[in-house]
Amino acid sequence: MAMFKTLSILFLLCFQIRGTMSAAENSSFSFNGFAISPSFGKSVALFGDSKLVNDTSLIQLTDSVTRSVGRVVYKKPINLFQGKQRNSRSFSTHFSFSSMSSEISDGALAFVMVPTSLDLSLFGNKDNSSSALGFLSQYAKNETVVAVEFSISKTGNRARILIGRPESAEIRNLSFVGDLMMNNGGTLSCMIEYEASSKRMMVRFRNSGSIKLFDPFFSFSVDLAKLWKDGEVTVGLSSANGNSSKPHFLHSWSFEIRHPPPMWMHSEPLEPNEVSKEEDGRGTSECIWKMFGALVFGAACGALGTMLALYIWTICRVRRSMAVVPEECAIEQGKK
């Protein structure tokens, strides 16, 4: 009985570890190049004026006209909770983009989280607002959403935060400092991180080719566990170029569930097509936990295999001893 109990515990441990790792993988994605990715068509949907640029791996979010709007949506649901107690998971998403015009413009880019029940075709609707979030206020009034919008121009950097139902939610308007202008076709990276333990979301940026991280630009409190019952959401990016005729381009986009909650104060967004000389804290933490999970899983499977082999060997040995006739008994039978 003790043997079977031990085997059962090891089986459960193995499946639990594998299940946790699979759940994290299923709720994560990474696109370092969109056109060259085989899973692009199955996982990503383009709405509005957004389109793949021929012979490149870029997505052109807005057209070369004023008041253009484009959106990119990851169609597969993202699970933000784990366990029966619905514990929130920490996550990070980062994307790189270009041609946020240096002109005086009211264009903006936004990261959006909506419930999976929302009809994705709503992302294709245009509105009269120059905001990247205008379509939510007009077409998703009764849905619970979390959205972070920012705009960069010579007149100043601005951010808008939307939490709850667009119809009744209080929109927070913030300003942040820093020279983020992208002249001469430069690229800017944005990282948005959610720390489940502190229930805080942080938004930071880094210029392409620079190791300097503006940390943080702005952050805000939000308890995602109270917003969605089932914990499954759809994530997307929305862009509007306002009164500028220069298009916005998306170079890369990734989303990653993090186990355990990361030390986000030490993390650093990475350029998808560049290898940083400095190893960031986030990558180190993830690597350590992945190695630990692999070691535990390997040790459990190894112990399981060893115990199973010993059990089979014991059974075979008992059967063999029962089948052999003792030598003394054989001699006595011969004398008779």
First-to-last CA distance: 44 Å
Order of helices and strands: HEHEEEEEEEEHEEEEEEEEHH
Binned strand content: 25-35%
What does the overall shape look like? elongated
Number of domains: 1
Stretches where pLDDT is under 50 for at least 5 consecutive residues are 4-25, 261-285, 323-336
CATH topology: Jelly Rolls
Number of strands: 17
Question: What is the CATH architecture assignment?
Answer: Sandwich
**Cα-atom radius of gyration:** 28 Å
The major beta sheet can be summarized as: 8 strands, antiparallel
Overall pLDDT score: 74
Q: What share of residues is helical? A: 25-40%
Mind telling me the CATH class?
Answer: Mainly Beta
The chain-level structural class is: alpha+beta
> With helices defined by DSSP (H or I, 4 residues minimum), what is the helix count?
5
Account of the 3D structure:
With 336 residues, the protein is of the alpha+beta class. It has a single domain (29-278), classed as Sandwich (Jelly Rolls), CATH 2.60.120. Helices cover 26% and strands 32% of the residues. It has helices spanning 2-26, 40-43, 134-139, 281-323, 327-335, and strands at 29-31, 44-48, 51-52, 59-60, 69-79, 81-82, 87-88, 90-98, 108-115, 145-151, 157-164, 172-176, 187-195, 200-207, 214-221, 232-240, 249-258. Strands 1, 3, 4, 8, 13, 14, 15 and 17 form an eight-stranded antiparallel sheet that branches. The chain has a seven-stranded antiparallel sheet with strand order 2-5-16-9-10-11-12. Strands 6-7 form a two-stranded antiparallel sheet. A hairpin with a 6-residue loop joins β3 (51-52) and β4 (59-60).
